[in-house]
Amino acid sequence: MTTQHGHDPVLLAAVLQLLDPQPDDTVLDCTVGRGGHALALAARLGPGGTLLALDVDPENLQYARARLEAPPGAPAPARRFFHANFAEAPDVLAQAGGVKAHVLLADLGVATSQLFDPHYGLSFADEGPLDMRLDPRLTQTAADLLAKLPERALADMLFHNADERLSFKIARKIVQTRAVHPIHNTIELGQLIRSVVGPKKFGQIDPATRTFQALRMAVNSEMENLTALLDAIPDMVAPGARVAVISFHSGEDRLVKNAMRQWAAAGFCTLATKKPVVPEAAELQENPRSRSAKLRAVRWKI
To answer: Which one of 12, 44, 48, 218 counts the least CB within 10 Å of its CB?
Structure first.
């Protein structure tokens, strides 16, 4: 683990500036994770404010709940926590009494704590099961996908989710291997990919990175859930609301950019970021995992 809380909130200063939480606001943190962004946002809310925090991972949700407990006697906003995917955000607002959000944040990244915990099976650096489910309510694992997807579907998944140039060669190797024996764990899958792509070269990411990313996204239906969230946002926010989304790869950023431009063209909002905000050198040095983060934000019209 590289940080005290298992994850550093990326672009925190920009998030606070663009979302500008006010004392009586309702803040909807769609991906509370380890609570870093939520803690900073909640600090701007007075006792009349409300923080609604949701996450698909009950372990991270429990951690964030404990971290966001206010000291006894301290003036603090109301805080409610929900085990939910951000695609379920409209249901969360309904459970909270049909409120509208004044501030909405969605950080689409995976927590460092999840990457370093072998039971998730997200990392090729440690041996673990090929699970990759961030939400235990899901039934299909990465091993299930590798065992049953046709070769063409595997290749399409690798290319569309992770821009893997050698998607067809990797998919063919997976199909050939599973015909002999199941692909059991993360180490075996990483070695299989390197046998196709070649070993890691100095200064480059591990050749297995893109395949693991693509599988995680498929298992957790990340692009489909992001689309559902973006479609729902216009009905979830109050007049004057501020909305920000932090993405980590081109497919996510494209969806966010297009949605925000469509909202602006329809007259719902103004773009608070004409170009995405990215980490500066100091943050990159402190937290290299932030290197692919892109923050886009809009301000809803009153």
So the answer is: 48
Pairing relationship of beta strands 269-271 and 237-247 according to DSSP bridges: unpaired
Mean pLDDT of 10-30: 97
Report how far residue 130's alpha carbon sits from residue 183's, in angstroms, rounded to the nearest whole number.
8
Phi/psi of residue 53, nearest 5 degrees? -120, 130
Q: For residue 233, how far is the Cα from the chain centroid?
A: 17
Q: What is the pTM of this model?
A: 0.93
Q: From the CB of residue 35, how many other CB atoms can be counted at a distance below 10 Å?
A: 24
Instruction: Report the C-alpha dihedral over residues 163, 164, 168, 170, rounded to 10 degrees.
Output: -150
Query: What's the rounded Cα separation, in Å, for the pair 55 and 128?
Result: 23
∠ CA 61-101-109 to the nearest 5 degrees? Answer: 40
d(CA 290, CA 277): 12
pLDDT tens, 139-193?
999 999 999 999 999 999 999 999 999 999 999 999 999 999 999 899 999 999 9
